[in-house]
């Protein structure tokens, strides 16, 4: 068997164990439609390497004891980063998304990349099995390059993923923060049976407004990744409540999502009743989305980053269609 095929089969088994937590070798072989002897050989190899551990025993139909296996959740780690105008927030998570470490660093001036390089190299020394870095930025991202960002605007045109990847010798994935928040909310709060429906997530953070749109379980990026940059909607309003109404009107008219989630800044409140009244007065009843409100902006962001980070550990296992 070629090394490439072996790694592909190994990743398939890891993904299966990640989804089903603990299984017998036969469970894995049946579920993946793979040869039992091949599955047995790969699991034995992973157990020897510490990637898999025994998780109890079952009794077979013939009365034999058979072992169950699960992933060693601490055999690999991922790092998630929330980049903002003033801070760099990091978490180190294991395969089960348990936070092993988290830190926040203040950044002044044009020092974001220097700060990131230093933090990543420090974490890598303490976590030798760190496998990837997944980062959110408050702006338009295309193929790892920051195409537009309100602040820090000196990063516009910077291929931040490539710069960091070359320095730390790890895969680095970069995403728009509103899209990540949308994913975090979507995976946690939208029922499995309804995931083929559309959802828009409108957030207002210290870095400005943004929207993440999911249609048919796919993130809507647009041809250049600019989709969701609601700060460009005209005319701009001095009154914040009127500005939010502009955003809502554009989203409902263009996307017409089944769900519209509004997430204000952590330290601000929005008039939920006024928003519901505005929507009911200005849109036909059959077109009105289910309005939801979320005050867990940071949790939605870290949930989305964690989901992406674990998905990125396995080739071809991206969540949704990014």
UniProtKB/TrEMBL annotation:
Pfam families (alphabetical): ROK
Family to which the UniProt record says this protein belongs: Belongs to the ROK (NagC/XylR) family.
The protein's name: ROK family protein
Source organism (scientific name): Propionispora hippei DSM 15287
């Amino acid at each position: 068997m070629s090394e490439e095929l072996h790694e592909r089969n190994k990743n398939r088994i890891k993904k299966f164990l990640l989804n089903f937590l603990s299984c017998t070798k036969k469970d894995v072989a049946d579920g993946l439609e793979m040869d039992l002897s091949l599955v047995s050989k790969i699991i034995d190899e992973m157990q020897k390497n510490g990637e898999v551990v025994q998780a109890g025993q079952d009794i077979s139909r013939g009365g034999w004891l058979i072992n169950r296996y699960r992933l060693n959740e601490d055999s690999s780690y991922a790092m998630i980063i929330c980049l903002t105008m003033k801070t760099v927030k990091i978490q180190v998570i294991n395969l089960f998304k348990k936070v092993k470490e988290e830190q926040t660093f203040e950044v002044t001036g044009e020092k974001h990349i220097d700060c990131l390089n230093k933090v990543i190299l420090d974490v890598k020394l303490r976590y030798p099995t760190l496998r990837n870095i997944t980062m959110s930025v408050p702006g338009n991202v295309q193929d790892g390059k920051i195409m537009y960002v309100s602040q820090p605007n000196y990063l516009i045109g910077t291929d931040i993923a490539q710069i960091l990847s070359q320095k730390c010798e790890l895969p680095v994935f970069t995403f728009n923060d509103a899209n990540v928040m949308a994913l975090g909310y979507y995976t946690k709060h939208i029922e499995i049976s309804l995931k083929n429906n559309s959802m828009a997530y409108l957030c207002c953070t210290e870095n400005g407004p943004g929207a993440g749109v999911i249609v048919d379980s796919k993130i809507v990026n647009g041809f250049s990744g600019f989709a969701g940059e609601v700060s460009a909607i005209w005319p701009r309003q001095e009154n914040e409540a009127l500005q939010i109404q502009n955003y809502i009107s554009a989203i409902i008219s263009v996307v017409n999502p089944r769900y519209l989630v509004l997430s204000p800044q952590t330290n601000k409140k929005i008039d939920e009743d006024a928003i519901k009244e505005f929507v009911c007065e200005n849109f036909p009843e059959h077109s009105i989305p289910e309005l939801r409100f979320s005050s867990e902006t940071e949790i939605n962001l870290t949930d989305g980053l964690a989901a992406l980070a674990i998905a990125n550990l396995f080739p071809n296992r991206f969540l949704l269609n990014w």
